[in-house]
């Protein structure tokens, strides 16, 4: 995605945002509430057509005008509200709208067998696939929603805040699941504001702030302090104070430039922002 813009009336949700994900890579998309994370993935998912910018898939420019377009390209999304049917069982939820049939009848056995195969492959713990999803735990419901997204063998899987409502053990289960997705070769976009989760599974971290790119990091060599500084704009915290002290020292002594912990905003075109840092 390049130069993506999106506004809702007077609200500029996204301004000139760049974003990409590769096969077998987990990219965390982080940012404060209202930073534009959900809007960006909804552009990718075909929910919101962008006002400007281009999207390339496998090197070709594509138009993603509807969720069906995204699905055809192999982009699957697990939205924050999961959108499961509580009264239906796990199998019915997985195959809803794509039911397997045999001689005009629902192929319940085939669907159940493939549901178990998929859950096993994901090392997912679901007690039964024939109980209504209403009776599952939060982590299990998330698992069902993720498994459902895999039915069409997508290339990219987008997860919007998959661990936000989960406890510690359930979170660990979902993080395991994300690693399985990477192993299967999917490109994974993980929206999260939990830095521990991000550090645990992401390969790369992309920060949005106020609808713009505000830094991109290798998860292996970034600290959560740095990420939080990028997320908040670091106007007033110890990290930014240290950085500005360092900068003052650098200005006094131009040769010494190493050791600054705050990276510059992604592409250095954010006039007026980060005034205190
Ligand atoms: N459908 C919509 N209509 C109007 N404003 C919206 C809509 N969706 C998002 N916004 C606004 O766009 C901004 C970015 O929102 P969002 O992408 O949901 O942020 P995040 O997911 O990072 O919390 C917010 O100011 C939000 O209020
Ligand atoms: Mg959101």
In short:
It comes from Microbacterium ulmi. By secondary structure, the protein is α/β, with parallel strands linked by helices. The chain has helices at residues 37-44, 67-73, 90-95, 108-121, 138-149, 168-183, 195-201, 224-232, 238-252; strands at 2-8, 11-17, 26-30, 52-57, 60-62, 75-78, 101-102, 105-106, 156-160, 187-191, 204-209, 212-218.
Molecular structure report:
With 277 residues, the chain is α/β, with parallel strands linked by helices. It has a domain at 86-153. It is built from nine helices and twelve strands. The chain has helices spanning 37-44, 67-73, 90-95, 108-121, 138-149, 168-183, 195-201, 224-232, 238-252; strands at 2-8, 11-17, 26-30, 52-57, 60-62, 75-78, 101-102, 105-106, 156-160, 187-191, 204-209, 212-218. A six-stranded mixed β-sheet has the order 6-9-10-3-11-12, with helices on both faces. A four-stranded antiparallel β-sheet has the order 2-1-4-5, covered by helices on one side. Strand 9, helix 6 (168-183) and strand 10 form a beta-alpha-beta unit. Helix 5 runs parallel beside helix 6. Magnesium ion is lined by residues 37-38.
